[in-house]
Every structure is written in structure tokens, then in C-alpha cells.
Amino acid sequence: MKDDKKIFVKEGSKINLQDYDTAYTGGFEEKKNAKEKLQSDIAKLSELQYKLYASNEYSLLLILQALDAAGKDGTIKHVMTGVNPQGCEVTSFKEPTPEELEHDFLWRCCKRVPRKGEIGIFNRSYYEEVLVTKVHPELILKQNIPGINKVKDVNDEFWQSRYKQINRFEKHLSENGIVILKFFLHVSGKEQKSRFLERIDDENKNWKFSMNDIHERKYWRDYQHAYEEAISNTSTEYAPWFIIPADHKWFMRTAVGDIIVSTLESLDLKMPELSKEGKADLQKAKEILLGED
User: Which helix (H) or strand (E) holds 62?
Assistant: First the structure.
């Protein structure tokens, strides 16, 4: 699915989300088959994570962006279920704190970039700074940026500059061994409504619901446009976007898992080889252990 034209966004593409079917299932005719594929990929991911950690050359950064109720949390839970938590960290980015607002917009995410050999997952990310802030440009004024004194100053030139800053940042990460995969979980307005109603009707899911979800739903088309612009301007060879159909959770999770596994496999990860001296030390250690009473 990594190269599926209905999911993968080629660099330079001009995105119109209406061209992407939120109910697409990638050739899977049955839910059962997709789940079997996911289980197979979960097992492969566990092995690949071990090699990633042992080789200590690359790290993997997964960025998940979506509108409310699209399924970010569930995707992380189901796809990463077989991953060793010692080599994986999930960071959920909420509204910026006063301290974070005193720094550049990339600062808080930069601190959470995964170390060599590890997997980092961003549940939302610095892309909020060209999504939520684009729908609500008044939020930019809180950042005290020179020359940005009123909403009118937050113009197209400003956004183009931010896209370029993001691309430069991701290029820097890529050149330092951080493999970046970006997923937009694309849910329809109809399906989002259904999931909101489920959260309201199910007492066990009430805690997931917020009246702010209803407020933001009024800006549906604005968010669609913001995502179209962000994805069009920031999908690159070194940090590609994947528009994942999210109306069917079982396919969404399978697609994300398949892309992660195929990407790690393409790195041709190898277990580290010991030098002659290292092997000699192992043999010596074995002799010592076997010689103990």
C-alpha cells in the first residue's frame, strides 16, 4: 500500500480531498482478510523494531494527523500493540503551554524526536501550526512573532513560509537518519457524526466527547482546505504524506501497519556484527562461565 496512488501523496501533488474516498478498502473484500494482514504485519514489526534498535543507525518518526474521532488513538493502540515499549514513545500534543509559546513553533516537537534505534509517534504535531492556526489565525498572535501584529498579517506569504520551515526541518531530520512517515486519517463528515453520537450514547465513551468537537465541526470545510494546502506543500520524498481512508477502522489500521512495515523493510536493517576481538571476548566469557563450579 506504500505506493498506492489512492493513498500515497507524491511530491508536488495538488491535493483535493474530495478525490480521496474515505471508504476505500484497498482491494480487501472482507474485514477478516484485512485483520489477518494486520496481525502478520504486527509480528513483522516486532522483529523489525528489534533490528532497528540493535543497529542503532536509523530512527522512525510517525506523525498522525486527523480531525476529531478519525481514530488516531485506536490506530496507535492496534498497530503498535506488538512493539517493545522500551524502544517506542508516544507524544500527544495539546494546546501550547505558556512556556511553549515563548519558543518557536517547532521547539516542543523537536524535543520529542526519537533517538537512534527508536520509534517516536506524534499524536498531532507541529502540523497543528498550519492547520488549527490556519482555521483560527488569531491564535498566531499569541506567539509574538515579529511583524505579525494583527490577523491581517497572517497572510498567504506567512503560510508559505511556514511550509518551507517544516520542509527544512524534516529534511534536516531525514539527513540525520530519522525516517519520517506522515498519516492523515481521512474520515467523512457523516462517519464523524456517527462516532460523535456513539460517544454521547455510550457511557464508557462519554469522556472522549467535548462540546468543542461540535464547535470545530462547524469549520469542516475550512479544515479540509487547511489539510489540502498543508499536504500539498509538505509531502516530499524524504517525508511523505499518506491519506489514509478512515471510515473503516479495520482498513485504516491495516494500511498504516503495512506502510510502516514496508518502509522498515526497505531500510534493509542488519544486526550488528562483532569484530574478531569482540568474538574472541565472547568465547573467553563462555569459557569462564563454563569453568565456574
Answer: strand 59-66
